[in-house]
Amino acid sequence: MGYYVSLRDNNFFVNAEHVAQVSEELESESYGPELDDAGNIISLEFDGEKLSGMDDMFKRIAPYVRSGSYVEMSGEDDSIWRWVFNNGECLEVYPTLLWAKQVHIVIQLCDDGTSRIHSNLPPDEVCIEVQATNRVALPQNTDYHILSYTEKKEAQLL
User: Fold this and answer.
1) What is the pLDDT of residues 42-77, one digit of tens each?
2) What range does the domain containing 142 cover?
3) What is d(CA 142, CA 28) in angstroms, rounded to the nearest whole number?
4) What are phi and psi of 154, to 5 degrees?
5) Is residue 145 domain-shared with residue 71, that is, in the same domain?
6) What is the pTM of this model?
7) Residues contacting 141, CB < 8 A, separation 6+
8) Are residues 85 and 39 in the same domain?
9) How many CA atoms lie within 13 A of 74 on its CB side?
10) Domain endpoint, select from 93, 114, 147
């Protein structure tokens, strides 16, 4: 029996001076290191099928792995996790699932130069500045896109 796993992604780096020691540990758990021209490990491949002593192995090699490196796996039950390396330590972390909120915003630009904002968001979550008639400035780092302007000076954003 056993728990089947597969490698989803990795961002993994080990300096050339530690490659021999780390490679031996990796290969004991069916990981194959990919080397660059300088002999550094820059990526991993996984040839195994089942989860075994990977957690302990990653903790043993953690002092040699660059901070910020990770190995992302998925299991037979569709679970996803990463081994994340930071300052010589390795932690097993799991993602948090967040559902996106569907947002509807309508900005009505009135003939008198004022504007009205209609939204399914609470007023304290709406951050839109209307600079001039027929011009809408959205704050940077938003996911809102202007879908259409109507001839009635209305912009609908989703």
Assistant:
1) 999 998 888 888 999 999 999 999 999 999 999 999
2) 105-157
3) 46
4) -120, 130
5) no
6) 0.62
7) none
8) yes
9) 5
10) 93
